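In the previous chapter we treated chains in isolation. Here, by contrast, the input contains two separate entities that must be folded as one system, with a combined length of 629 residues.
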Amino acid sequence: MTASIATSQAILVVGGGISGMTAALEAAECGKQVILAEKTPTLGGRTALLYRYFPKMCHPTCGLEINLRRLKGNRKVRTMTMTEVLAVSGRRGDYTVTLKVSPRYVTENCTGCGDCASAVSAEIDNPYEYGLAKTRAAYLPHAMAYPQRYVIDPSIVGTPEGEKAKAACKVGAVDLEMKEETVEIKVGAVIWATGWKPYDAAKIQPYGYDRYANVITSLEFERLADPHGPTGGKILRPSDGKPAKNIAFIQCAGSRDENHLRHCSRICCMASLKQTQYVRESCGDGGKSTVYYIDIRAIDRLEDFYAMVWNDPTVSFIKSKVAEITEDKDANPVLHGVDTEGYHRYATTHDLVVLAVGMEPEANGIRLPDDMLLDSSGFIEGCKGAIEDEGMFGAGAASSPLDVNRSVQSATAAALRAIKVIHKTARTEKV
Amino acid sequence: MSYQNNFLKEVEERVEEGHMVKMCMQCGVCAGSCPFGPDWEHSPQKIFMMIRAGKREEVLGSDSMFMCTSCYNCIVRCPRELPITHIMHGLANYAHRIGMAPKGQPTRVFATMFWNNLTKKGRVNELTLTLGLYFKDGLVSGIKTAFGMQSIGLGMLLAKRLNPMEIFGGHGLKDLKGFHAIVAKAKEIEDRKKGFTA
């Protein structure tokens, strides 16, 4: 099916994470028509998978809820989930975008009752738990999912499992005949809020992420600490399920490294400092966090948080990039290296190691239009060519490694640039 | 007091890959990755910091550079891509050339012996090189080592891998004069490059 659902005075926002939602809302609240396209079945992106924000230690549900509320109350935004951009052609003020909409197999009639999930027994890796847990093949992404609609995994479509889900639905919302669609739209400006992804920790060979069960990434640790996560908020070792009390945090795991990511990912220092407080929350004074770092980069006012953690007696800091991790016979990771303050050689055993993995642009995995200008790490700088021809913009973590706060600032800036494009186009069209 | 660090400048100008020393960010991965790490007084990371701190005597008198086995673990893992192995060899060579390297450091003694043996005839005379190594700490220890190794020596003799006649100088290249000219020219070029001509 090909249909035109927008005009050249609309803005397309690609990516429905915190940046995309913000950009879409800021533009829509200024009266512009916005199409918000999200690849996965829900908005919220990686922000929804965090346990707490730094430095205020509040829950992401709060910020997301406000944005979802704004979204529900705004008729200018059209949200399209399970939608990917296939191609973009044209120029500033006059882009033609081809979108691919994947089948969800659940229609808008879904009431979110969950009967389909109870009926189905097949399981898939939960895409929202970084591989730490399974979920039923008919599922609601997570508690904050928007839209609150179930998804049927394609793996059970055409099987008796799929039929079970269909039979269980009282409102007839399961449609197993749904097909992939291609939609073509006209927009005046495009905001790429495609976000980031964690650097593949298995590529850091000496750290053995692929070999040792008790070496995990900072994002997996967020899920462990989250009461909605796979362990119900208990910090348990993946190898034996015992509580982890003595936890090491390794900074610059993949960042600031010519062999991996050249850039500083900027958020990981603060993320690890924040996570030491999860350990304190979970184990009290009995917990022990050790941060191995090259230097702590807590920028401007976040320095206060660093000072607070520095004074926490359960947290210690070792100025050293860990050279290698081995494992003892009880599956405890042993960290080897030499510290820079005195050049002491150490071989320290911990219960659990958290790699503060770097941020890579999510767009490294997708094809952006050829006229996008990327930096050496793949982050979006803008469009090639003259600045007055610029009609596509990067926002949030797609443009630079940013925390949530700065992503929102960046997204607002991108929305303003896109609005400018629309205004100019509107003026030309009138003449 | 001058803030100009003359020793760092000297290393940058005269040591192979010395200009990369300033790129070190002191993360410590090289020191932690080195298989000889626990046996050295100064790890690469420490040597680089000492260079930047202007500790000329300590750095050039250190035996650490001579301990490097060229396993390249440090180069592979260095997040700043410093050619650490090359810098360590460059420092060892520089310290040797200006006569500040530790006297009697076994690696240095053997390397010197090897070079002199090789450049004499263009081929390594294994017999004289081995004997030279056995007797480097004196007659008594030399005889002891030679006796300890005699079964290997005899075995090599029987397998025709060792010619006892080599003791009288041994065979060499056909164009020995040309070879010596090449070595002399190479030395001249190297001296000029490293500023040893004066």
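Chain B has two domains: 6-97, 106-194. Chain B is about 60% helix and 0% strand. Compare these points with the single-chain example from earlier in the chapter.
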